[in-house]
Design goal:
CATH topology of the largest domain: D-Maltodextrin-Binding Protein, domain 2
Oligomer: single chain
Structural class: alpha/beta
Shape: globular
Helix content: 25-40%
Radius of gyration: 19 Å
Length: 307
């Protein structure tokens, strides 16, 4: 049996694909695994913030097309890059155990966000990170930053930014966790929906592949990711809306905190809920609806009107 894994070519994407390949081989020593490298639109457009060029689907569309044409069998994604809607015939078949979901503060000179001098330049293209930075430090200059992890770190080291914000999971996977000077608590600086999870996508009619890949599914992670993604789906939030959510399981309940904001962090709606482990989608949806009723609906309508 052979499984072809579709992957982007970045160092982090290749790490993720190789990680899944090795995990599969641990369970199935005779399995042959081939990596098929695919360039996505998101890899080509590096000078424009994602919010302006189409958002999450930019990193998965070409990979999904290859799967539908039977050129690959599965795709390994950073789940935070995966839209909540799939092309017909495709879907998530496994979600791996969550890596650290938090955001990291990275700087050459400064040890924390609080230490940055007034007017310091912080790099991030994420609207979610921008609004949370504005809430904490309205005096900072926030400038766009795109590219893979190496590119972002190089720009920081060249002095283009005083600090940058990155996903801690990506740094850890690349062996660069020592670059993080500060790691934000997830309820204080809310991560992207599904940050830290790897999602494995496959053709839903490919029973054999689904059966093999299902050994990598982490049940608790699947519940957390399902809760967060239901929140996102209800808000129909792509990259052009500042929002985030973080779910964890405590005392046999799911706890989720989420927020929606306008682009200037003037109208910032945040709420936490807990619910039944067996109904993760209901909880994510309920939280989103509560935020919409608190005033997030007007904020979203305004953002979409401007966009």
């Amino acid at each position: 049996m052979k499984i072809r894994i579709g992957t982007r070519k970045s160092k982090l994407a290749l790490w993720q694909a190789n990680f899944i390949a090795n995990e599969l081989k641990k369970h199935f020593p005779n399995l042959e695994v081939e990596l098929v490298k695919i360039t996505t639109k998101g890899d080509k457009i590096l000078d424009v913030p994602l919010a302006k060029v189409g958002g999450k689907g930019l990193f998965v569309k070409e990979i999904e097309e290859a799967m539908l044409k039977n050129k690959i069998d599965i795709a390994v994604h950073s789940l935070k890059d995966v839209p909540t809607f799939f092309p017909e015939g495709l879907g998530l078949v496994a979600i791996t155990k969550r890596e650290d979901p938090r955001d990291a503060f990275v700087s050459v000179k400064y040890l924390s966000l609080d230490e940055l001098p007034k007017g310091a330049v912080v790099g991030t293209s994420s609207l979610r990170r921008k609004v949370q930075l504005k809430l904490k430090r309205p005096d900072l200059q926030i400038k766009d930053l795109r590219g893979n992890v190496d590119t972002r770190l190089r720009k920081l080291e060249e002095g283009q930014y005083d600090a940058i914000i990155l996903a801690y999971a990506g740094l850890k996977r690349l062996g660069l966790s020592n670059k993080a000077k500060q790691v934000f608590a997830p309820f204080d600086f809310i991560p992207a929906v599904a940050q830290g999870f790897l999602g494995i996508e496959a053709r839903l009619d490919d029973k054999k592949t689904k059966e093999i890949v299902s050994v990598l599914n982490d049940k608790e992670s699947f519940i957390k990711a399902t809760t967060e993604r239901a929140f996102l789906k209800t808000l129909e939030g792509g990259c052009q809306v500042p929002l985030g959510a973080y779910a964890e399981i405590k005392n046999s309940k799911i706890h989720i905190t989420g927020f929606v904001s306008d682009l200037e962090a003037k109208k910032f709606f945040k709420k936490s809920l807990e619910g039944d482990l067996r109904k993760p989608e209901d909880l994510g949806k309920t939280l989103a609806e509560k935020l919409l009723n608190m005033g997030a609906k007007e904020v979203l309508n305004e953002i979409y009107r401007q966009g």
